[in-house]
UniProtKB/TrEMBL annotation:
Gene3D superfamilies: Dihydrodipicolinate Reductase, domain 2 (3.30.360.10), NAD(P)-binding Rossmann-like Domain (3.40.50.720). PANTHER family: BCDNA.GH03377. The keyword Oxidoreductase applies. Keywords: Oxidoreductase. This is Gal80p-like C-terminal domain-containing protein. It holds the Pfam family Gal80p_C-like. Coiled coil: none annotated. GO terms for molecular function: oxidoreductase activity. InterPro entries: Gal80p-like_C, Gfo/Idh/MocA_oxidrdct_glycsds, NAD(P)-bd_dom_sf. Residues 126-278 form the Gal80p-like C-terminal domain. Signal peptide: none annotated. It comes from the Eukaryota.
Length: 354
């Protein structure tokens, strides 16, 4: 069987794609199943830099495209990149529910397979949680509680915004706190415990403006206005009857010594509790780090060292045609429906049924 030839849109030499996605695809265990043959970025310089880096990783020359993604999508040597073919799409998989639905409809019409970048559901911690729940060790789950924080040291959303991240403050671009870190976590929650039946939400904006900083964190003197909230209280009931309470806050200091809890997720069963937590400044981004885990108060060891190994499993399932545990474009639509329901509830002050 020939390897699936990938044209990777947005694969730069830094960022999430370079630290998790590319290493998982170029892992020796997937040699012969996937091969990166082309990359596409926004500029000629960044595309060539990316092509040079990954050519060294895969052992052959990689084509460099920039600008219009139709160029890489029409490359006859590329098997996986766009809706006309099987495709991978990083979450949020569209700037809005309407856009994601349009992508899903096109994918179904073409009869192609899809895989979405919701890598957190492949973590060792989540696999362990599913195993414990299936064993009945904590009894019937009745409720779950999440406390999370995105600190000001992470220069993506106000009060501190990196020069390259200024697009995130505009809601139309679909890169808000709700659509990225919060939705990533809600995907993991529903992956483990099931879908929401109803949701009630309250939001607040404590940081209406953001100070723009350069790549070294130095203030540029520019200030930009944020169009989206920075705090969310999300509660609801899952289809299983489980009661959910989620509180995300942002913008506070994450410096050591504040005592601030960055990420805690508890799952309460009648006979016990599962808790995962992280004290890392970006610990709420559980697709990047494995959290600590406790079952009935006792620490349980999980494989904390290789998030790439977890993501690699999803790629292997996709390559062999297995349904697997990876997210599809239909999961992306479901998540966007939940995002819209949260925004509607917060805007109108009412419970929204899904």
């Amino acid at each position: 069987m020939s390897p699936i030839k990938i044209g990777f849109v947005g694969l730069s030499t830094t960022g999430c794609a370079s630290t998790v996605l590319a290493p998982s695809l170029t892992h020796p265990d997937l040699k012969g199943e996937y091969d990166i043959v082309a990359v596409s970025t926004t500029s000629e310089a960044s595309a060539q830099k990316s092509a040079d880096k990954y050519s060294a990783d895969v052992g052959h020359a990689i084509k460099a495209y920039h600008g219009d993604t139709s160029k890489i999508a029409s490359d006859p040597d590329v098997d996986l990149v766009a809706v006309a073919k099987d495709f991978f799409l990083e979450w949020p998989a569209g700037a809005s529910l309407e856009e994601t639905r349009a992508i899903a409809e096109a994918a179904h019409k073409q009869g192609v397979r899809t895989i979405i970048g919701l890598q957190g559901r492949h973590s060792a911690a989540l696999r362990k949680i599913k195993e414990i729940l299936a064993s009945g060790a904590i009894g019937a789950v009745k409720s779950t509680n999440v406390l999370a924080h995105v600190g000001r040291e992470f220069p993506c959303w106000p009060p501190t915004v990196g020069e390259a991240n200024q697009y995130v403050v505009e809601k139309k671009n679909g890169a808000t706190r709700l659509s990225i870190p919060i939705a990533h976590q809600l995907d993991k929650l529903t992956y483990v415990l099931g879908n929401f039946a109803s949701v009630t939400a309250t939001d607040a904006t404590f940081y209406p403006t953001g100070q723009v900083v350069d790549a070294k964190g130095k203030p540029t003197g520019k200030t930009i206005h944020s169009e989206t909230p920075d705090h969310y209280i999300i509660s609801g009931t899952l289809e299983s009857g489980v009661l959910v309470n989620v509180f995300w806050r942002a913008g506070y200091s994450s410096e050591e010594g504040t005592g601030r809890r960055q990420f805690v997720w508890e799952i309460d069963g009648e006979e016990g509790t599962i808790r995962i937590e992280s004290h890392k400044p970006t610990g709420a981004f559980t697709g990047l780090y494995e959290p600590d885990m406790y079952v009935n108060g006792q620490k349980v060891e999980v494989d904390r060292d290789d998030v790439i190994e977890s993501v690699k499993t999803a790629w292997k399932q996709f390559a062999t045609g297995e349904k697997g545990d990876y997210a599809t474009i239909d999961d992306a639509v479901k998540n966007h429906e939940l995002i819209d329901a949260i925004e509607l509830s917060a805007r109108e002050g009412r419970r929204v049924l899904l």
